[in-house]
Amino acid sequence: MADPDGNAFLVRGVNYVRFNGDLSVTGGSPYTEGVKAKYGSVEQWRKEVRRRLREWGFNTLGAWSDPELGLPYTLNLHITPNYYWSKGGVLARRRLRLAREPDVLWQPFRTFPDVYDQEFARVAREVARREGRRGDPNLVGYFTDNEVDFNVDVIFYEFADMTPQEPGKRALIDFLGKQFEVRDFNAKFGTKLTSLEDLLDYTASEFQVLETRNSLREVKVGFALQVAKRYAEVCVGAVREADPGHLVLGARFAGENARDVLASFSPFDVISNNYYGENPPLAYFSKVNRLTGRPTLLSEFSFRGPGMPNTRGAGIVVGSQGERGEYVKSWITHMLELDHFLGYLWWEYMDEPREGRRPDAEDSNYGLVDLEDVPYAQVVEAFMEVNYLFPKTA
User: Fold this and answer.
1) What is the pLDDT of residues 70-96, one digit of tens each?
2) Staple partner for 228: which of 261, 301, 379, 385, CB 3.0–4.6 Å?
3) What percentage of residues in the chain have a pLDDT greater than 90?
4) CA 127 to CA 142: how far, in whole Å?
5) If DSSP codes are grouped into helix, strand and coil, which group holds residue 345?
6) Structure confidence by residue, pLDDT tens digits, 253-296
7) Lowest-confidence segment of 10-19, 82-91, 118-127, 375-384 by average pLDDT
8) Domain extents for the chain?
């Protein structure tokens, strides 16, 4: 990347750097309560965190962080959960489980928005206008969402289960009409349709019955590619309209969840991908770059160690804080060998509550600091080693 002065800029950052930490399932925020007692005010907390991050070699605040910390930062627009909220959390098919914690939005897993609904485009434009920070030189760019489920089965069956009145169902039937004549469809799936329009009344369960008779794989992938492209075009268009001067960093894809639809994401400036595991995703990130033609950003990664329950959460659990540090160094040094790689954002600044966070009860050791705000020295030292491979001011 290039900063506003034209200097090379490698993202070296941390997600969820904020005074208001996770809410516990039992109530309250253990981290926030601790730092209130320790620092007395959010201003003093910001002063210390800003000093720490700079000393540790970080230069960027990742998703859900406090822009007032005075470092280059990113913003998550949460277009998809905002769309669901605009529907009151209720779709024609079912009620969605939505959560708001305090200003962090969560979309339900295994759902996908109706990107053909004009309300989706309206919400995208509204959110981009409301949240946009046009002209702010400290803003690196926008994430459109977090871990929307781009699995082709989820997309296909979500649209298949829509009612005939929903625009997405119309889009699916129109897509099928380009793939099949009705007689060919009947022959392939053993149906007796008079027209493909009859499929408007089919539910996801009925489409699943058809799949037991013959494969829908090619159809599902083709439709998911179309849907993913529509998602990217609508979201990027909304951001461009509100703020043409900043980067659109993608949707923080989850692992290899979007692997079958990567070719649809060229509208983004950067492809941000969250990834957890034992080995750095060199081959997958190279595939992302090859299929999209876009540079890549590791927007979330982490390793868990002892001291917390670690009963829920992504990523491996290792035996010591020193081992966490070794994984940090191994991953980053290998990822930096990729010539399309723009940087990394660690998950997260502080540990999750021991009792589990709302709304998903995660209780893991992801932090650079513990719940008493004490840094994990070996993890911090590992980051300092890799962060300082580059000039401190870069």
Assistant:
1) 999 999 999 999 999 999 888 888 888
2) 261
3) 92
4) 11
5) strand
6) 999 999 999 999 999 999 999 999 999 999 999 999 999 999 99
7) 82-91
8) 11-79+117-148+247-387
pLDDT, one tens digit per residue, over 305-316 is 999 999 999 999
Residue 351 is classified by DSSP as P
Q: Is pLDDT at 104 greater than 90 in this prediction?
A: no
Q: How far apart are CA 362 and CA 184, in angstroms?
A: 49
- Cβ atoms within 10 Å of 144's Cβ, excluding its own: 27
d(CA 285, CA 271): 9
H/E segment holding residue 105: strand 104-106
CB atoms inside a 10 Å sphere around CB 28: 12
Domain 11-79+117-148+247-387, CATH homologous superfamily name and number: Glycosidases (3.20.20.80)
24: closest CA among 366, 374, 354? 354
User: Which residues lie below 8 Å from residue 142, measured CB to CB, with a gap of 6+?
Assistant: 74, 75, 76, 77, 128, 131, 132, 239, 243, 246, 247, 248, 249
Tokens of 68: 């007032």
Where does the chain have alpha helices with state H?
30-39, 42-55, 79-86, 118-131, 152-160, 167-179, 182-189, 204-213, 217-242, 282-292, 321-335, 377-387
Residue 120 contacts residue 108 (beta carbons within 8 Å): no
Distance (Å, rounded) from C-alpha 14 to C-alpha 57? 11
Give the helix, strand, coil percentages of the chain, each rounded to 5. 40, 15, 45
Confidence of residue 394 (pLDDT cuts 50, 70, 90): very low
Q: Which amino acid would we find at residue 213?
A: R
